[in-house]
Specification:
By secondary structure, this protein is α/β, with parallel strands linked by helices. The protein contains seven helices and seven strands; from the N terminus they run βαβββαββαααααβ. The mean pLDDT is about 90.
């Protein structure tokens, strides 16, 4: 495995910091080195929110991601703000429910918020997005993400979140296996 630089970005209330914690927990289960930083606006909901992670098989000397291998943008503002940090061959995933004007570069558009809403919890779009990232990249093992989810999600919300994780994993695998069909400009 190489060193992955990842940013999960969007608005407060979309669960991006929890998403970073889940991904970090899964990486630890896999025996990887991990650093994570988060930032969020002073608003309870609606302000900017971001989790930045570095995941590696080797010790990490710089905890801040350089150019990003994976960028998840769950709203238009974060897409506009962070897309310049993406590596030339990096993976950009946009929530097409919330990002109406993606940049004119190769990216994957997935309606994470709509998919989660159809399943019964729009606020769990972060879990669908994490599943998609893992299905597409295999940064961590899917089973490790499932274990992290069980350890961090309230029991009454776990069945729905596990369902959304499986939906995301399935979508991610589909994107990986048919990337030329799903990459958009």
């Amino acid at each position: 495995m190489k060193r992955y630089h990842i940013c999960l970005s969007g608005s407060g209330g979309q669960g991006l910091i929890l998403g970073g914690v889940l991904l970090a927990h899964a990486a630890v289960i896999d025996g990887k080195y991990i650093t994570m930083t988060s930032s969020y606006g002073p608003e309870a909901r609606g302000g900017a929110s971001r989790s930045s992670l570095v995941i590696s098989d080797k010790p990490i000397d710089n905890p801040m991601p350089d150019k990003l291998d994976v960028l998840l943008t769950m709203n238009q503002e974060s897409c506009n703000c962070y897309v310049s940090h993406l590596k030339e061959d990096g993976i950009l995933l946009v929530d097409s429910t919330m990002v109406k004007h993606p940049p004119p570069i190769r990216h994957y558009s997935v309606p994470f918020t709509s998919l989660a809403a159809q399943a019964g919890a729009a606020l769990a779009a972060n879990v669908t997005a994490l599943g998609t990232i893992i299905g597409l990249t295999r940064i961590v093992k899917p089973v490790s993400l499932q274990i992290a989810l069980r350890a961090r999600i309230k029991e009454e919300m776990l069945p729905l979140n596990e369902k959304l994780l499986q939906l995301g994993l399935k979508d991610g695998r589909k994107l990986k296996n048919h990337s030329s069909e799903y990459y958009t400009y």
